[in-house]
Structure formats: structure tokens, C-alpha cells
Amino acid sequence: MIEMKNVSKTFDRYQAVENVNLSIEKGSIYGLIGSNGAGKTTLLKLLAGIYRQDRGEVSINEQAVYENLDQKQKLFFIPDQPYFLPHYTIKQMAQFYKSIYPSWSDERFQKLAKWFDIDLKKRIHTFSKGWQRQAAFILAFSTLPQILILDEPMDGLDPVVRKKVKNLMIQDVADREMTILISSHNLREIEDICDHIGIIHRGSLLLEKELDDLKSDIHKIQVAYKEGMPEDSLEGLYMLHREKRGSVFICIVRGKEEKIAEQIRKTKPVIFDLLPLTLEEIFIYEMGDIGYAIKNVIV
Amino acid sequence: MFELDMRSRKPIYEQLVDKLKELIINEVLKPDEQLPSVRTLAQQLTINPNTIQKAYRELENQSYIYSLPGKGSFVNSFNLVKDSEKLTNIKKELEKNILEALYLGVTAKELIHLIEELDASKEGGDKDDRNEKR
Asked: Where is the ABC transporter domain (chain A) (predicted)?
């Protein structure tokens, strides 16, 4: 169980994270999404014990993380640009991690190296971006961490490798109840594997929910009527967005599916569709609701 | 065993529940047959094991499956639930299609006539089936 209570962090005068409360259950895959510069990376680094918070508590299993060796041995953090010691080969990096992580598994390391088909004796800095990231994953999964923290993990990986990495994650979550925290902009990527989602904007956590609940609470509806839209048809519905394309109305509505469908059907529309939203759309409309909207700008 | 549509808007959890129901109703998964373990299915489909757990729990609540601690999940042999579920599905589908037909200008009378005709031919159809079996 990972917990953050009223956590704040400032850099000079810039407030990067403000009063964040967050909790992640063991064995869950948690996706952190947010606008650019929202404080995602800062949040991850606080959780990984790299930064010290100015205020509040950051804890794993009720123990503070910062400067806590016991806890840090159980977690692995892959930053958005994986870091390796200069001129090290993967094999040397493996020796290094082996000396730090008591849970390191040589057997797994060999298997992973074979599976990813990577040259262990080549210096990592000569690798391409994608290969470097694969090397980071091999090393991370060889430490058998209880908590895996990933900042933009799929960046620069091809679809085959993505699938491999996802498969590894799933294996460890299913077998060892590993907890994963992922931040990403690629919402499609996150949508597939996460069960919980947190949305962060300007340093504060906007919402934190189970993905399925998030999705069942917001819908896209398309309606058309023979003679224009009746005035009262959408009364009492929580509307996030509404637009008209030709004679079809497209609305984004919050609420329970059955209730919305029932109300709209009563008004006898000619066309009526109710669709769940993709995570990407949810993100856009939730952000729009607090004023971070996409405006059509001509430059 | 089956594929999920990762690009669909429908939540994976719902797709999973529906897919498994379909397999159980159509008896692709036979009564008392063991369902794949959460781990295997998660690996096969590359989806979150928690999602599968949740889908299994939902199916258990709706008594499609039962679980034995330490052994796994199995298909329930209780047919009544399946039939009633099938019926509601068919009714929903019909409602949609009939509404469409009405909008397209088919009269209620014509529809009733059609139903009566089908009902009459159903008797014949049954007989044919029986003949085939012989």
C-alpha cells in the first residue's frame, strides 16, 4: 500500500505538487495522467524517495520512503530517461544492481536477456533509445521489485517490445502481487492495463478512481430529432459538453447509463446512441471542465 | 480462447463478462468445466489480472460460475439463469429492430402478421428438425 498524505513540494518558488492525497493498493496497476508540467514526474520521484517532500507524508506500508533503505530495496524506478553508469555494459549494471537489491535474481536476468535478445557485453550508451529502455526493463524485472515506478515507460519502444513488457508486468502482478505505478501521455497505452487512474493538473490531484467506474460515469450521446431538439429533453442532466453537427446533437453527459437512456428515449429521438468514452476523451472533457480546454486557435 | 477488442470503447471488464457469458450460454464452456486461471488469461490477453478477477467475481454474482477455494472457477450447471438472460437479450434486440422497422414505415399490423406467420411456420420447422434427426 502506497500512500501520500497532504504532500507538497516546491522548487525555488515554483509549486510543483500541492496538497496531494493518494493511495495505491497492493497488486494494483495505477496510471497517473496529467497535462504537461502538471507534476507527474515530481510525484513519482517523491514516491520513489528521490525527492524529499516539503510537507506531508509519503509512505509505503506505513513507513516513510525517503532515505529508508528497507523500503527502497523493494522498489524500482525507471525515469523517463533511463540512467546507467557511464560506459557500463548491461552485465556490469547487473552486477551493480545485484549488490544493491537483495531480491536480485540471476536466473531471471539470464532468461530476460535471452528473451529480449540483447547483447550483454556491449556498452549501454552505444545502444539506441529503445534498446536502452529495454535494458532498463531487463534490469528492473531482474530485481523482482514489490513496487515498480515507471515514468513514460513505453516511449520509444516498438509494438512487439511493448507487448513483451506489458506481459512481464502482468506476470509479476498476477504472480507476486507487484504494484505498478505508471505515468504516461499515451492514454491508449494506459487504458489497456491500468485498473486505477489518477488525473493530475497544476500540481493537484483532480480525481482518483477505478478505471471502470470512471468510464461508467461519463457517456457520449448522439441524438437527432425530426423537428429540432425538444427544450426539456436534456433537463437535469449534468452536461460537460454539447455541440451540434448538422441535425445531430453530440453531448457528453455525466451520470448513470440507464437513467440517461431512459430520459432521452422518452423524448422520442429518431437517432439515439449512447457510447462509453475512451480514456483520452474523458481526460479532455474533465480538463475542459476545469478550464484547460482545447480551443481552436489559428496561428 | 477468445480475443478482446482493445480499440473498442466498451470497458475491457464488460467485454470480458459478455464474452464469457456468451461462451457459457452457447455451451462452448460446458457445465463444471474449469475456466482458465486469472494468471493464464491475463497473460494470454495481456490485460490486468485485477480486471479478470473483477469479471470473474461479477460472473459469480450472476451465478454463471462458481469458485472452489484453491482450485479455481468453474461453469455453473444452472440453466435457468442462462435462459432468462438469453431471453432478455433477445427481447432487447427485438425492441431495437422493431423500433427501426416502425420508423422505416412498416406498420404495426404488418409486423403482427409477420409474427403470426413465423409462429405458424415454426411448428413446421420443428417437424423438419425431428425428421433430420431420424
From this structure: 2-227
Give the residue among A123, A137, A7 at the shortest CA–CA distance from A65: A7
Q: Which domains does chain A have, with CATH numbers?
A: 2-213 (3.40.50.300), 217-289 (3.30.70.120)
DSSP A43: H
Range 102-131 of B in CB contact (< 8 A) with A: 103
Contact assignment for A193 to B103 by CB distance below 8 Å: no
Give B43-85 pLDDT, tens digit per residue. 888 889 999 999 999 999 988 899 988 888 999 886 656 677 7
**Length of chain A measured in residues:** 299
Distance CA A152, CA A283 (A): 17
Task: Beginning with the edge strand found earlier in the chain, give each strand of the sheet holding A204-210 in spatial order.
Answer: A75-78, A147-151, A179-183, A29-34, A196-201, A204-210
pTM above 0.90, yes or no: no
User: Which phi and psi angles does A40 have, rounded to 5°?
Assistant: -60, -50
Assign 3-class secondary structure to B4-24: CCCCCCCCHHHHHHHHHHHHH
3-state secondary structure of B105: coil
Per-residue pLDDT reduced to its tens digit, A167-207: 999 999 999 999 999 998 888 888 888 999 999 988 999 88
Sign of CA dihedral B4, B6, B11, B12: positive
d(CA A154, CA A166): 9
Q: Which fold has domain B12-78?
A: Arc Repressor Mutant, subunit A (1.10.10)
ipTM associated with this complex: 0.74
Which residues, in sequence order, are bridge partners of residue A11?
A14
A88's CB contacts (< 8 A; 6+ apart) are: A96, A123, A124
What is the rounded distance in angstroms from the CA atom of residue A94 to the CA atom of residue B94?
62
pLDDT at A85 over 70: yes
Residue type, A28: S
- B38 to chain A, any CB pair closer than 8 A? The answer is yes
Q: Please report residues of B whose CB lies closer than 8 A to that of A160.
A: none
Residue extents of the structural domains in chain B: 12-78, 80-133
Of B6, B14, B48, which has the smallest distance from its Cβ to A195's Cβ?
B48
